[in-house]
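Course assignment 3, question 2. Fill in each field.
Student: A.L.
Task: Predict the tertiary structure for the chain below.
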Amino acid sequence: MATHQVVNGVDVNRLKQTIGNVSGDPERAQFQFRATHKWFSGAHACTTIEDFFGAGQEDTSRRQPFRLEADEPAVLLGEDHGPNATEALLHALASCLSATFIYHAAAKGIDIEGLTLELEGDLDIRGFLGVSNAVRNGFSQIRVTFRVDSDAPENQIEELVALAQRRSPVFDMVSNPVPVAASLEMQ
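Answer field:
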């Protein structure tokens, strides 16, 4: 009988089962995540996230949708109803790096007592405002600092930080161009 093992809040048995499932059936590894974004006024808008496709089927198990408010701070003409898009991107990157780090630590049996990621992104808004075509519209650089509390040897933690960067889907998306197709439907 298999022993139930939880490391860092991760059910290692289920993690290994999931890895086995997608290794044996690549179709089960295909996911489609969705979001619907509705504008209100100025920069204030809300993104709703609910159902998704994964593990070979539609997943409608969420009891209620997630709603993420977006806006800009007053200095950028907003009313601060929520983080701006660049701040939300930092959140997405941190969340993905953190989950990747913790899941791989659990799979290796490495206990993590604490994990904090600090992120900074440098943005020159002249590109966004159309003031200069020589300035990039997005971040010129993002810096991530992992602060880890663990009894594991430092070389194992360094390996996990490198692994988080290699395996994080969001790190991959912000580090490499992703094709984005936009279309228009008039209402």
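Instructor remarks: Strands lie at 6-7, 10-11, 36-41, 44-49, 52-54, 57-59, 66-70, 114-122, 141-149. The CA atoms of residues 74 and 169 lie 32 Å apart.
Grade: pending
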